[in-house]
UniProtKB/TrEMBL annotation:
Keyword terms: Kinase, Transferase
Species in which this protein is naturally found: Stutzerimonas decontaminans
Family recorded in the similarity comment: Belongs to the polyphosphate kinase 2 (PPK2) family. Class I subfamily.
SUPFAM superfamilies attached to this UniProt entry: P-loop containing nucleoside triphosphate hydrolases (SSF52540)
Domain Polyphosphate kinase-2-related: 29-247
Domain of life: Bacteria
Pfam families recorded: PPK2
InterPro entries from the UniProt entry: P-loop_NTPase, Polyphosphate_phosphotransfera, PPK2-related
Protein name: Polyphosphate kinase-2-related domain-containing protein
Coiled-coil positions: none
Keyword Cytoplasm among UniProt keywords: no
Protein's UniProt keywords contain Coiled coil: no
Length: 272
């Protein structure tokens, strides 16, 4: 149902060259095949998410990073669509507000961690504190080592709270980003999303990718790995993330709760 381990493991970050792979690689799959497979996989994910919610023991956290237009919203919309909204906890993080700046940089992310039984999704994450905050002069280069250590400590604590993070960096080529920005300019339903910052980020694409490669290099580990997802093809991006999510559910080995029912058939039949 999901993609094979060999394909998923091929997406594991290589700390020596985190973003050196081709973001347009296709693993020999085609769009029609991938869409059928994703639809089938989502039916299975729906059952797993319900069992996660029923047990209220563990939580999954899907962390999505990537450049503008790489599809962070798209993954949440396409992969998580159809799951029980009561068991979902999606959050999108932009530049911190004035109130958020009064707290430790991790404060707003801690406040949004999924509770037991929930499937959480972060569209951008605490890793923005190492790149975007620096770009926006919200911290200095001297702050980065301390922030990096704080994030490492933060992630080490997540399993103790039953939270299992799945970190995906959606790798997009600069040419594909330009095409998607052109499409946004042409489509009113997407044009409203654009800011001058999008143009500036596109012009600085290479420099930002270098910065993110450094982040991935330092924050990838065997216990909390990064997966670098080729995102030039939306259909493959979605199937890869869904398959990784399915593998996380498999590792949880969920079953339906076996606690006794709160009433019996006799109780029900005795009701007037």
């Amino acid at each position: 149902m999901r993609l094979a381990d060999a394909i998923l493991d091929d997406c594991l970050c290589d700390p020596a060259a985190p973003l050196a792979r081709d973001p347009a690689r296709g693993y020999g799959l085609d769009k029609a095949q991938a869409q059928v497979q994703l639809a089938s996989l989502k039916d299975w994910l729906r059952v797993q998410q319900t069992m996660l919610w029923a047990n209220r023991r563990d939580a999954l956290l899907l962390v999505l990073q990537g450049p503008d237009c790489s599809g962070k919203n798209g993954v949440i919309r396409r992969v998580l669509a159809g799951l029980d909204p009561l068991g979902l906890s999606p959050h999108s993080f932009q530049a911190p507000s004035e109130e958020e700046r009064q707290h430790d940089f991790l404060w707003r992310y801690r406040a949004c961690l999924p509770r037991p039984g929930m499937l959480g999704a972060f569209n951008r994450s605490y890793y923005e504190a190492l790149v975007s905050d620096l770009r926006d002069s919200l911290c200095t280069p001297a702050d980065i080592p301390l922030r990096r250590a704080a994030i490492e400590s933060f992630e080490r604590q997540l399993p103790a709270h039953g939270i299992h993070p799945l970190k995906c960096y959606l790798q997009l080529s600069v040419d594909e980003q330009k095409q998607r920005l052109h499409r946004r300019l042409e489509q009113p339903e997407k044009r409203w999303k654009l800011t001058l910052g999008d143009l500036q980020d596109h012009r600085n694409f290479a420099r930002q990718q270098t910065q993110w490669a450094e982040v991935l290099r330092h924050s990838h580990s065997d216990t909390v790995p990064w997966y670098v997802i080729p995102a030039d093809h939306r259909w493959l991006r979605d199937l890869l993330v869904a398959s990784l999510l399915a593998r996380e559910f498999e590792r949880l080995a969920l079953t339906w709760p076996t606690r006794p029912a709160p009433f019996t058939h006799a109780d029900l039949d005795s009701t007037p």
